[in-house]
Amino acid sequence: MYRTIYAQIHNTLETKWSPIILLLGARQTGKTTLAESLVRPKVVRFNFDLVNDIHRFSAFDRESLDIFATTYAHHDILIDEVQKYPEATGTIKYLYDTYKNKDLRFILTGSSEIRIRHSIGDSLTGRVYEVHLYPLSLAEMNIQSGLSFDFSAEWNNIQENQSRLRTYLVFGSLPSSQNLPLTEYPQFLKEYVNHVFSKDLLEIGNLRKPIQALFLAKLLAHQIGQLVNVNELALHTELNRETVLRFLDFFEQLGMITVATPLSTNERESISKAKKIYFTDLGIRNALINNFDEYHLRLDKGQLLENAVFMGIKRQLEYQRTPYQLGFFRSSSGSEIDIVKKTEQTQSLYEIKTSGKKTKKTEHVTYITLENAQRFLY
Fold it and tell me: What's this model's pTM, rounded to 2 decimal places?
């Protein structure tokens, strides 16, 4: 499967530094498929979802590690779900540091930033090239479908893109769903959500109260693109404020949501405590609210488009490894800008419009509609 980030990671692996590659992201975003496309013909695989593979890795001592490194010189070591066995980081560090002359390369995948960041800590600092993998972009979906694609052409494949964009806004773009008929998307996405809240919540987050957590996620799904009040969420879910914040952090570290904060050239003008929530994949969001109506029939068109554009911009910036700030502006007097992007060189302001009417805004605002949104989703 084509991924725009592939060349960048491949070229990094080929450098003299040849860092440990760490692929993060929500489950079923294609981490393992991408990792498999990066490895050389000689590869040793471990999957820490499997108890036997954890036993294999945990059995290593210094002598057996020396034998392992010699036996598998010039091999790639691919480890899936590395967060399931945090103790592995010490062994990985030792192999990476000690056997540079053996040409061992490491590619790790993980679907929980919580455990991975906790286990890695400072032990692999300076050794890791981290990539957050997102669901498919419009360009990746096009190429997957066999369409020729020119990144420099804003209106490239406009008819196909408009049709695909409407599907994207309703069913999302998880790679594992792309070969399904549309009639099977709702069931696939509902099973995905069920897995997150019946298993990941406990296994990865070590969090209880799955019913309240699911209710909280549903509330967030109804509020995408809107200001979120943590106290109100606590009241509706019958959770305390600290627990709500802990669940929000878990959802974000799991790769399910992104929390946006206010940005302004004059920070005193913005509402400093306000937050907005966006879902990494709109199919997951729509499964939570159980609404798979076609785009043109929906009442939440603006919310869907804003979510898609925000995540599209975020994906582009992260894949380009551009330092950035991405959020929104909303003042106490009522002025608002849907999306604000700041890089070292530029500041960009975006307003999402689902109708032809334009309200009076700052002159530098770019208006995004369904018709011109595709270039933000490449």
Answer: 0.93
